[in-house]
């Protein structure tokens, strides 16, 4: 300012000194932030932290309000007009008065919570009693995996049962969340018995004619309540004795459909009148709910050996396009033939696409290790939880991981200083802490066996009726069945060995289930010990509220009989099944990580490796020591090999 008013030589010198001083301080500040950034990178640059992933991905998501309707009924789209006014801001920032605070506190009920999530949680707690078992999304205790598994089980036998031919219909709802009619939704809530007060809170202050807002914690529950009408109408079709559905196993209950939010699979037959009834239900649902089936994206599937004339007849009734197996449902391929490599090409492409997005980043070995452990190895987990891909697919993924880890340039090959079989061991056993996808797959199928044995659902009931109707799951023999069932049986022995049943209703089998904590008594007792097969349920060993001591002595040897008398307790609760616990975990619940520890490939632990990977030591130092100890350093001798 002074130089502009009086541009003299003296003032110019003063200005230059001030500018020089400013540059000096800016340089000092820049060095400070540079050092601080360096320390952050040193501490978190190679670790599995939000800082690291934000650097690698640099992604941000935004939720925008495009337009709003004014009180006069005019739609406002101008962003400036959508903004709050000064009066609004003043009111929003105003501190509440004592009277307002007192009024709010005294209006709280025992069911209220300190944030809006409590309202949603209360609604979610009653959903299992309102929503049909066909719907598994947003309902506590139900799983996406069971939907996929059950679909695969049914499709596996698509040719074996059903006269006329079986049909699978995959529905695509056009913008399902955005099209729900609020008039219809509120009517559904009233029919389900919700109070007027609840319905008013659900409709909120911003009136809408259709659509539930995605991102609102209450929206998922409201959406599946609105979709429940379709489920009940489809299930009601079986009350019509002339209706012919999908051919199911002999002892299984009829099943019309499965739904995961708006992803719906219908199981039908090519019987024209029955198929027409399904389409009539879908048409009525569209009219009353505001939903619309996208016929261009919806499709039907039948066995390839069905006559072309029948394909055309089904297409004429449904108006949908003919699809071919395999098709993708909830991220997994559904097929009835043997596993083929090309069924899993989408997974390979996704992994390669993710790698390609990182190629421009300069990543250290530590950064690559973090990305492999936290991102790449997580990508196949969804599929491994349900399907067991062919070995060559898992081997191909391992090769992709190894190339990414050892590569030092954008294209071309680099030397692999250690095999992947050595890298996927835990660090204390000489590896880098990666996991073999084969081991992960086995742990996932162990979890499926646990869910099958300990939960009641559409899937577990179907599996029980299909494979275990005549024999207990613990003794059923290997035989023909889906690949998922055979893989579950491969983990049966390890999982059953760790389950102990807490007696509630005493329906546990005496000989083949672990209710004493000693293991299945059939295997615990000596081979020459006579087994009384007339006794089956634990309830038969009791007299009233106590053990039948005489029968215990007659049935078991002295050691086991005494153990039962002293250590096995019965907590009778009418209406409850015997409750399973998993012995290795304190909570008694199944954990994939503990199953992986039992089922994985192992090596002997080494104290030297533990010292290399001390917590807090930068990865590059530990990794260098690991390579030095393992003789995987780029020395002249190594290059000459």
From TrEMBL:
Residue ranges of every copy of the Reverse transcriptase domain listed in the record: 1-334
Protein's recorded name: Reverse transcriptase domain-containing protein
